[in-house]
Every structure is written in structure tokens, then in C-alpha cells.
Write the C-alpha cells for this entry.
Amino acid sequence: MRTSLLSAVLLSACIPMKASSTEPSSPAPAAEAAAIAESWDVDFSHSTANKSISDSASLEFSGQAVTIAKGYQTPWHGTCAEATRIEKSEPIADAIRERAADLEGTTRMRFGGGDARVITLTCADGSTPTMDLVIGNLGNFAMTCIADVCHTLKAK
């Protein structure tokens, strides 16, 4: 019996102890960024506080394609083959106001409430202007602005 007890004590010394709950746990792996739609159509273009756009100029971009993949392609930015992405979250109203967009109430409603995803795309080779993409929390409407004109996009 003494041999059994001694064996049990020695065996238990070899079993790793369970970590106490007071020890810090290792950080969880970084979550991958949520996917965004790759293909968008220009829903409409609109004025900002700094510039007014005519109805005919607004219609010129309507229905044109915007692609977001490893890079981006728009009628006004041009084509970027590969871009870095920085993503942050900010209140939709602030994201729209910061970009001086003059959106009507109906358009604002398309973005939903709460926070927007703001993704800044910077072309790796510097060949095209940086693109900020403000995506509403519903995920199917976005906005990008360049040269004081904003373009509302609808996911395909």
C-alpha cells in the first residue's frame, strides 16, 4: 500500500498543474477584417459643403462600376493594382460630416445608424489617390469622396 501511495504521489508530480484563473491569459489571435463587397455601382454623386455638382455631372457617374479587391478601381481614382488597408469604426454621422458630404435624410437612412466601417485604401505604388470608403452598418451602401465630390455606392 505504501508503494501505491508513493507511486501516486510521484505520478501526480509529473502531471502539469492547471493554470490558475489569476494568471494572465495569452491574447486571442487578431480577428480577420470582415469581408467587404468587391463590386459596387455608383448610385449617385452629390455635392459637398465645399463644392456643388450639377445634376448632369451627377448622372455622368451613375451606374459606373467600382471594384475593391487587392487594390481598387474607380472612374475618378483610376486603377490601383495593390493597396494597403487601414480600417476603423466611427459613428456614421461623424464619418459623413468629416468628409463634408451633404447627404439628404433618405440617403443617410441607407447607411443605417450606429457606426460605419471606414476603410482607407492607399495604393502601394502611389499611382492613384488614397481612397476612403465609408461603409454603412447594413453593408450594402458605401460612400467615397474625392475633389470635394462624394459618390454613394451600392453593392452589386
User: Anything to note?
Assistant: Residues 1-32 have pLDDT under 50 and may be disordered. The first helix runs from residue 2 to 14.
